[in-house]
Design goal:
Elements: H1 2-23, E1 34-41, E2 54-59, E3 65-69, E4 75-78, E5 84-88, E6 99-101, E7 107-111, E8 116-120, E9 128-131, E10 142-146, E11 152-156, E12 161-165, E13 171-175, E14 190-192, E15 198-201, E16 207-210, E17 216-220, E18 236-238, E19 241-245, E20 251-256, E21 262-267, H2 269-272, E22 281-284, E23 289-294, E24 299-306
Antiparallel strand pairs: 1-24, 2-3, 3-4, 4-5, 6-7, 7-8, 8-9, 10-11, 11-12, 12-13, 14-15, 15-16, 16-17, 18-19, 19-20, 20-21, 22-23, 23-24
Length: about 300
């Protein structure tokens, strides 16, 4: 009887152990990002809250959307769903090109004709102007990126250099990204990722990843045959992924910021249209929504990102 009870107890424990072993979840492969179209907003025109030649888009920590218009010189603020909240112009800022927003809500708007970055404080204080120590050049491109440490990084395409400034606008460092050269075409923009790294588009369609000090970590490129990225119009970095448009202006590619592995390819032609076009600028808000600035149609398309 004692031997039988012991044998029964042993079998019970063994079965229990097997049950626990088989109930453990199996390792899962990384989820593939998918997009769901959720709407659009925007109106053509050259007045407040309208779009004539929108050239840049960014969002703040609340999900509000900021758009700069190179045609009307307006800087406009919209609610996440597209309701116009504020529009303004500034004397001297006649050719706004790109826009960035830091974690405190301060706006950084580039003007390559003036070779400056206009800084608008979130508390409504008068703007400050950051003048680069380079000569303005026709057709040049400037882009600004601001890290969580407050450093302001400005990429001057014609000079082929990144200029880093303190929040008090004191120049602390100048560095040249690998493969850059003065007058390089289709280089940029410079983007600050939420991972505290800097990302810069290359003329060959790749995206270089740097430390804040300018040390190259890796260059991420389109791995698939026949795929050509077009980061020059603007790309987005979110959740360890890069979101960048194809050169046809319709296909969106998502790749890992760590190893460059492709995550997903999404055709936006159903909303953008089948015709070839310049790649649109992109932004991602804190809600996990991809915003696509469709400049020819003066509108913003919204997609919910799901991993």
């Amino acid at each position: 009887m004692i031997f039988g009870a012991a044998l029964l107890l042993y079998c019970s424990v063994a079965i229990s152990g097997c049950s626990q072993a088989t109930s453990e979840p199996l390792p899962r492969s990384p989820a593939t990002p998918t997009l769901k179209y959720i709407g659009q907003w925007g109106a053509p025109g050259n007045g407040p809250g309208q779009m004539q030649q929108p050239s840049g888009i960014a969002t703040n920590s609340l999900g509000d959307v900021f758009i700069v218009d190179s045609g009307s010189a307006f800087i406009s603020k919209f609610a996440p769903e597209g309701k116009p909240l504020l529009s303004f112009q500034e004397d001297g800022l006649n050719h706004p090109q790109s826009i960035a927003v830091d974690r405190d809500g301060t706006l950084y708007v580039t003007d390559p004709v003036r070779n400056s970055v206009f800084i608008f404080m979130s508390n409504g204080d008068h703007y400050r102007e950051l003048r680069l120590r380079t000569r303005p050049v026709a057709g040049n491109t400037l882009s600004a990126a601001v890290g969580d440490d407050g450093l302001i990084h400005v990429f001057d395409q014609h000079a082929g250099k990144v200029f880093s400034y303190t929040p008090r606008l004191r120049l602390v460092q100048t560095w040249e990204p690998r493969e850059t050269f003065p007058g390089a075409q289709h280089f940029g923009p410079l983007v600050a990722g939420p991972d505290n790294f800097l990302y810069l588009g290359t003329p060959s369609g790749g995206i270089m990843k740097f430390t804040r000090e300018g040390h190259l970590i890796t260059e991420i490129t389109a791995g698939a045959t026949g795929v050509t990225w077009s980061p020059g119009a603007g790309f987005a970095v979110w959740n360890n992924c890069i979101f960048v448009m194809d050169s046809d202006g319709r296909m969106l590619h998502v790749a890992s910021t760590v190893d460059g592995a492709g995550k997903s390819d999404v055709d936006l032609a159903p909303e953008l249209g089948q015709a070839g076009r310049k790649a649109p600028a992109l932004a991602i808000n804190p809600r996990g929504e991809l915003l696509v600035l469709d400049a020819p149609e003066s509108r913003v398309l919204r997609y919910r990102i799901t991993f």
